[in-house]
Amino acid sequence: MNPFVNEIPVYETLANGNAIIIIYDLFILLLFLFELFLFYNKERIISEVKQNKTKKIKPVRRFLVKLIVNYEYQGILMVTGVLLVISLLVVSLHHQIQIGELIGILGSFAVFIVIVFLVQHLFMKIDQFQDIIVSRFMDLIFYLVLGHYFVLFANFISPPSLPLGLLGLSFALMLCFSVMIRAIANPTLIRSSVSKRRKYHETASILKGMLVLVVSEMSILYLMVYNCFKINPGFYAANSDRALDAFDMLYYMVISFATIGYGDIHPVRFNGIIYGELVAMVIGLASMFSTACFVGAVVAGAAQMSWNQGLEGKNQDKDVPSDQDEHNERRSMISVIHEKLKNKEL
Q1: Per-residue pLDDT averaged across 96-115, rounded?
Q2: Which residues form the Potassium channel domain (predicted)?
């Protein structure tokens, strides 16, 4: 038997989680490509619109600007709305939705949205990171995590097959790793943009940013573990021969990520399928990589802080624009465009 071929259980009474994950992950991929487009064109488009005070711009350009501004202000609402529409569409294609079932779906989705906004308020604020690219990458990671979390924990959706489920989560993990690498090269990229500059602030802010990255990474790894477990609980076994649950998978992931490895819960090669063992290896490698990045970014941030303090005396008489000023100017520009769109001046 090919160990990379998953024997997918049949969930005849549940909506197809594979279809939801495929559509949702493709949507996030398009969003990622849209982010790249914004990176190269956003400032030019917005500047042109800001300077245009006498006449309305062309419909295509206006649509792009409106999409940019709405995504800046309501990105999380856009993504959760798309996830809800995809879920309802797939469920309706599977079977006719009854009123009671629709109320249950909307109720579970309402609880899910509350959790999403609480998590975003704590960890994923739009201005959490000073660097624009890092901030948008973190949003994409957050969107991927919340989509897979919803599909895995919704009781009316079947779990996605392991190749599909792990593929989207692997993409989120790669984005997280790329941000960590950028943080080592320039630790100020993950510095918060909302705090005041003061002594030791930069190192503490970088430390907070790295903690957010590590928590995001652990969330991705937990979803990988739980996806394997939900497809087939036989991928994991306990020494006490008791039935495992979602909390046991969280415990297993944290212990494995911390490289403690008590061995009371361990992956099992079930019928020659090695997904549980592969995810365990990914957890170990991710732990070593994130530890190195964490230490490297914090140390580099401390060194950079000392260097900046040494230059403060030399630049006291110079009016040098800071990264914070640039960030505030950009946010102000977005606000101007947003008001012009609301007033239908564009």
Answers
A1: 80
A2: 224-298
